[in-house]
Amino acid sequence: MTNPIVSALTGVIARLTDLADNPSINYQTLVIFFTWGQTAFEAYILRRQLPCYDRPAPPPALKAHLPKETFTKAQSYSRDKTRYSLAKLVFDQALGWGLIKVGAYAGLWDFAGRLLSGLGLGNNWVITRSLLWMTVLTLTTGIPGLPWSYYHTFILEQKHGFNKSTFGLWIADTIKTYALFAVIGLPVLAGFLKVIEWAGKSFVPWLMLFLLGIQLSLQIVYPTFIQPLFNKLEPLPEGELRTKVEELANQLGFPLKHLYVIDGSKRSSHSNAYFYGLPWSKHIVIYDTLIKDSTVDEVVAVLGHELGHWYFAHPTKLLLVTQLHLLLTLTIFSIFINNKALYSSFGFDPSLAVTSPQPICIGFVLFQLVLEPTDALVKFLLHAETRRMEYQADEFAVQLGKKKDLASALIKLHVTNLSSPHSDWLYSMYHHSHPILPERLNAMEAYKGGKPLALKGVNASASESEMKKDL
Ligand SMILES: [Zn+2]
């Protein structure tokens, strides 16, 4: 006997599938309309934010800590960054629109087919052709972005004194990033397509399992093999800081396995700290820039905040949220997977949507274009949640008695990172994963104490692995 909920759901999906595959729906027009709409919305938000950088003085909570000169510098840095974002936003949208208008998706698919026959392979090598297609697509969309990346590092960041990178390092970073795409991205994509091909109509749970496996393996692979390509991590030397961090970890029952310093100063003078790892073996990484600019107690207070994220299992909760989002995305994709109207709207032969072996990759990429505007909504919701988590982690540090040190550390970080203390509310809701500094300081000041912490031997995340979490 089949489960009535499952059969009802299958019925709904089947009906939606029929509705969505209608030759009179022009998906290309829809995508262009919605992506320009989203771009207009994002440009509007950035425009709302710009006047914040013309305000003459910092908010009252920060007045005592921000010298006039620093405040002016922060305003000017933020203004430049926002103008850059505005220009980049319009450029990216124009590029995406141009690619759709000239029929690049279908054109490059034919090109990948010619490459394939050049390699002496027939058209039934669908996955190989898909990998070739994704490679040329990635290069076509990525290369026009390189001058922007160059400008960001060597003109914008340089002007405000943050850039520590060199042209050689920048070139090496770019090459390594593309090499990682080839070494990790392409095999994962091949696996992704293979799972769908193999599982057929019921691919969703299998694909979820596959992707979760990849995410968890990256937790192990990233710090050991990928991060060392870009940065050097060294054990934090013995001394007062190391002793105090170990004491804190001990007090909280945090399974600290390794404590590292990362050479963040190699590229930039922005600073931070984070932790990652499996539930029984955690690594803490502190930026050398944070250590340089703060007192020992301030660094420990920052880690008190970080360990608040661990105590409340925030990374695990975020992982669950992303899994739910993925489940929803893949379920909607299952509605579009054989959609002939979608293929033909973008200049592909509609029979590709139903042939065997089917080039699923085309459907997935086109589906992503259709789904893209929903990202805005996801961003609003996700940021509301992460901001709530930041307040909670701050409260945790306050409960550990680190209010004064955390406040002064956050102010120092704010000053060295030249963040602007003013923000438009809509801009903040959309872009900020963290509350802005005056909000955090006010909340810490207003906090009256909550439930006592259950410390020592606490294991807030007994079963799941956790994602990297920035301050
Ligand atoms: Zn945080």
How would you describe this structure in keywords?
single chain; about 475 residues; mainly alpha; five-stranded mixed beta sheet; about 5% strand; globular; disordered C terminus; binds zinc ion; transmembrane; metalloprotease
Q: Can I get a quick summary?
A:
Its cofactor is Zn(2+). The protein has 471 residues and is mainly alpha-helical. 66% of the residues lie in helices and 6% in strands.
Give a description of the structure:
The chain is mainly α and 471 residues long. The chain has one domain. The protein is built from 18 helices and 5 strands. Strands 1-2-4-3-5 form a 5-stranded mixed β-sheet, with helices on both faces. A hairpin with a 2-residue loop joins strand 3 and strand 4. The C terminus is likely disordered.
Secondary-structure blueprint of this entry?
Elements: H1 4-20, H2 27-49, H3 68-101, H4 104-118, H5 126-142, H6 146-159, H7 167-199, H8 203-230, E1 233-235, H9 240-252, E2 256-262, E3 273-278, E4 281-287, H10 288-293, H11 296-311, H12 314-336, H13 340-345, H14 360-371, H15 375-399, H16 403-416, H17 425-431, H18 437-446, E5 466-470
Parallel strand pairs: 2-4
Antiparallel strand pairs: 1-2, 3-4, 3-5
